[in-house]
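Batch manifest, entry 17 of 40.
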Amino acid sequence: MMTPSVSERTKVTLLLMAPLLPRANGSAYELLRPREYGDLLSTLSQAGHSLEDLLGVEAREILQDIRIRISSERLSALLARGVQLADAIDRWRARGIWVIGLGDPEYPIELVERLGAAAPPVLYGCGDAELLRVAGLAIVGSRDPSAEAVDFARTIAEEAARSQVPVVSGGARGIDASAMRSALQAGGKVVGILAQRLDRAAVAGENRESFVTGQLLLLSPYDPSAGFNVGNAMARNKLIYAFAKTALVACADHSHGGTWAGAIEQLDQSDPMPLYVRDAMEDEALAELVKRGAMTWPIAADIAQLACQIDPGWRSDADRHGPAEPTVSLFEHASQMLLCLDSEYSRTELQGHLEITPAQLKAWLPKFLDLGVLEQTSKRPLRYRTKPPALPL
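Output type: structure tokens
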């Protein structure tokens, strides 16, 4: 099981941004906010320095020379918390918790690509860090779900485990916990993104065996001793989606709550990931998500097919069952489906035939035209038709 060590760069980040003392600020000076941290990184880089230089003997001189709105006194006080940092690292290690930061080789590049400046500066984790490479199915839902929604989430999680598709969720009670537990019991891999008390989850008896077998990875962008905070819980949803290639909403509360907000945020992206909902259109929230571009989940037997749309490259190291089969992306699948169409279609009709969202069609239409699998036949109204592949000579 891979457990990263704390790099010098990450140590500086922790000194500047982490409380270090349980349930306390750890310093008389205010911790750096994300924007301040970003400004500091940019300023240091422009001056020819790295973040690690702030641990060296010339740190005080560097802080006095650079031009930044943060006072050198405040930065020096935060950087002087070396003893507190050492104690915190020992405390985390005793619970099996490790830390990685932006710039570390273990830090998932996908988070930077998908979240940009919103990517967390540090990630606290417990479990096999190899699972950081996961590309899985996010299963999310409300904390107080119906029995039908729970049964559905459990069934899909079990099918995902059998299809060797990892499950990503948030660890909250309700759908999250049910899906994660079912996937683990079925022998699957799980990545849980927690918004609170990673230190407790790291030593919880029900998680011990899953850590040992390498099935479970728990992550949090927040201090391991941090308690519940609504803002943290809402922001954590971005990470759940960032660690997944496909998402499934088992249930949601219409127009409020983290599940609803996270799903709407994804559907509003210019190039959203495939987002599915449970096929229960009597549910107002799920029906509205479909209107906004979500798709209803196919029958459970099709989940093995879905696995081909979720990059399973991590399996070659995790399963030891031989090389993974070639993957087919959603775009490639849609391109192949176009070859089965033999008429003229409007944009709305194309979206329906391909079973993709409006945002996906908008992003992919120029690619279809460039590849020559589709051609525009008229402008008013806009109509398209497929181009059959050229026959070999």
